[in-house]
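Request: How about a record?
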Amino acid sequence: MVKTPDELALLRVSGRLLASVFEMLDGLDLAGMSTLQVNDLVDRFITEDLAARPASKGQYGYEYVLNCSRNHVVCHGVPSAGEIIADGDIVNLDITLEKDGFIADSSKTYVVGDATPAARRLVRLAQATMWKGIAQVRPGATLGDVGYAIERHAKRNGCSVVREYCGHGIGREMHEEPQVLNFGQPGRGVTLREGMVFTVEPMVNQGTRQVATEADGWTVVTLDGKLSAQFEHTVAVTATGVEILTLRRDERRM
């Protein structure tokens, strides 16, 4: 689970490249685009502009470079030419990128146009919940500390955290040990050590935390049909705290 300095250097490169994908997307008006158009745009940007590989494409038999999860879709939304992003939607784009054998993973929920105040609040809360978890990352802390901070913040704000899906170690493989749960008890679980690299990626629901998987075998939705939002970063444990490998330019001022 612990990466060498050379491996961390390569992971930083992958993380910076993946951050640039989101910075490209930040400049787009997603309203009116199909989710497949977004997928194809990201595919071209990663392969042609960045000379990298979209790591999700072909993983576990998945055909696309990203997950595109709108409104009540929690995660693993499958791009489609017939699914059009509309004004007022919230849409999570979950993207992975591999460069020189090492993978970075990140996601962001976009507010499209004139979304409701409740939708905007959920997106802000999901992002803040991720930061609460990341703030716990340092040598000697535990993954229980991370999960506890995540769920506590969501619950204090009247929302729930999905338990069926979680963060994960990452490096040469997309999914490595350890599992990074979005709930837990302080002081419990794996103790963090310098050089560990993993994702923090809470999925926050407006209503109940219960979810269901649709007939395509991929798309996960809220059981009550209410909105869900997610943010994700790949992070590394440093000697003094945490380094966010997929940090975007707009977040450096936060």
In short: The chain has four helices and 14 strands. Residues 36 and 81 are 5 Å apart (CA to CA). The mean pLDDT is 97.
